[in-house]
Amino acid sequence: MEVIGLFGYGVAAFGFFILSILILSARSQVLQVRLMLYAALCATLGFASAAFQSNQLLPLPVAIMVDTLRIISWSLLLYAFSMECHSLRQLLRAKRTITYLALSFGGFFFIVAGVAFDQLHNTYFYLLYVGLNLWLLVLLEQLFRNSDGASRWSLWPLIIGLGALTVFDFVMYAQASMVSSVDFAFWYARGLIAIASLPLLLISLRRVKRGEIRIFVSRQVVFYSSMLLIAGLYLLLMAFSGYLINYFGGEWGDLISISFLALGAMVLAVLLVTESFRRRIKVLIAKHFFANKYEYREEWLALIAELEKATGQSYYQVATDFIKQKLNLSGGCLLLVSGNEYKVVYSSNLNCEATLVDNFEAIGRFCQQTHWLVDIDEYEINPSHYQQLSIDVDLMKLHSVKAVLPIFSESTMIGLFVASGKESREVLNWEDRDFLNAVTKQLGQFISLNLANEQLAQGKQFEAFNQMSAFLVHDLKNIQAQLSLISANKEKHGTNPEFIEDVFDTIDAASLRLGKVLGQLRNRRQHNAGAKWVDVSAILSKVAARRSVNKPEIIYSATASIGMELDEEQFDAVINHLVQNAQEASSENDKVYLELKVDNKKVQIQIKDSGTGMSQQFIDTRLFKPFDTTKGNAGMGIGVFEAKQFVESLNGKIHVDSQEGVGTTFTVIFEQLEVKEA
């Protein structure tokens, strides 16, 4: 036996050495040819080591470890063919190559070290080579199935020659892993198999031109390759389990192990023919090894372009039409959740009668629980895919309903897209479902945003109405306050001619103010009496006299008598409000100072009190904020805001200087208005 081994391995080593010289003499720079040279050299080294072992000059484990280089070099050659690499750097940088080398060398050094230091059983050493040869078989099978006719003609000698030796090694190491030792009958015969493979490798080398092997990877081929790998790993596991049973089973070991392996084969057959298992494997392969059916970037841009066309009235239609377009159907509708029922908000070429909507509600409950879209054609073929869902298929077919898609916004279902049409189409696969789920999520956000905009617009309308009401109440409150002053002082000053004159002036102002309010209500817009030249100092004097009826007293002073172009009524109301606020912040024994200063066309109007004062934070955050009041129900919180708006409309500004417990000074400044002496 040793002589046969020595002869076989010696001739094989010499033959692969000659093959290396032939490849080297060709001086080809093609990557695949260079890798075949490396593989031939590694085979020469491996078979030479085996020859030395046959002559008892080298331990068997060392010869096997040297042969590792041959297996890895052939695997790299097959990777280069399948990935169509053109340089060694490109091949070694490929993710698949890096993963293979890391697992191969990592497993090799880990297991060899474990066996050498008696930390692992010899079985793991042989299992390593079972795995390496199994993966080499998978690579050979993929290369053969994925190549076209011309490539197969070039590669089949390589695949048969290398495949025969790899299958032989797989069986030998699988048996060795069960009994923890190599059967030397297999080991010595292995050299003869290597000799037989040499001519086939030489033929394949001559047929490969420039290393250009065109590979087409189909999903079906990858599926069958994956199933082959799964079956190989499963049978290997069953064989190892059978060995353990046989080893520990005593007299009954053989019977139990045979029964166990037969049962395992039956389980494997059931798994391989089970449709659901095969379908899951196909989806897994398609998701992780192939390009998507849909180009998501282009689809995303198309969706954005469609959404940009939407107006405030048509966004329901735009969203529904996009779903119809992607499903190649002519009809559909959009239903939104309204309380505990669904409301049809848009329909096109689909009559959404009450019974149909009832069915959609049942589908909606199912979609809310599962987040699935419902393909009516698939449901008709295989209802078991939609457990706990009951649909009136005849009614759906009557209305040509093809699919129902849930619409989610932030994990909450807000409605359903329904697609219908008489057009024929295939049942939706996992790619269609993934794409449609992504689209409906985006459309759900789009619809939610537009619904929120509608609610916001309604809220703004109510806000505008409330603001108008607040200004109206504010104006009426000011008029009421002026008339109340007349009533409060009629007994004391009723016979005073000046008081009577002021009464008529106040009534005229109140009448004018009421007319303005009515104009605002009729025209639903700000009514402006118009700017005109007015005597500012005279208006300030009237305000001081009018407000002095109440305590504290108003002290008015002016450095000049001037006129400005502005709205007299609004100006009067603004100054009156600021003075009134100063009075309300002061005690009756205090005084409020109203002062007019003119300096080189710069007009300053100061209202100064010694009342409660305000903090700087209050001035910065609340003083000029509309509808924010410290007076409770007695105030509307718009007086100072209205004053600021009026002053700024005249390119002026209001400066506030206040200190809590000391008092406040409001300074109204006009710098760019034309000023004349009154």
From TrEMBL:
Work out whether the entry's keyword set contains Transmembrane: yes
The reaction(s) this protein catalyses: ATP + protein L-histidine = ADP + protein N-phospho-L-histidine
Q: What is its EC number?
A: 2.7.13.3
Q: Which NCBIfam families match?
A: PEP_his_kin
- List the protein's name: histidine kinase
Say which domain of life the source belongs to.
Bacteria
Keyword list (alphabetical) reads: ATP-binding, Kinase, Membrane, Nucleotide-binding, Phosphoprotein, Transferase, Transmembrane, Transmembrane helix, Two-component regulatory system
Q: What class of enzyme is it?
A: transferase
Every copy of the Histidine kinase domain together lies at 471-674
Query: Which processes are annotated in GO (biological process)?
Result: phosphorelay signal transduction system
Q: Which SMART domains match?
A: HATPase_c
Q: Transmembrane region positions? A: 6-23, 35-52, 58-79, 100-117, 123-141, 153-173, 185-205, 226-249, 255-274
Gene3D superfamilies recorded: Histidine kinase-like ATPase, C-terminal domain
Q: Which PANTHER family match?
A: PEROXIDE STRESS-ACTIVATED HISTIDINE KINASE MAK3, SENSOR HISTIDINE KINASE
> What GO terms are given for molecular function?
ATP binding; protein histidine kinase activity
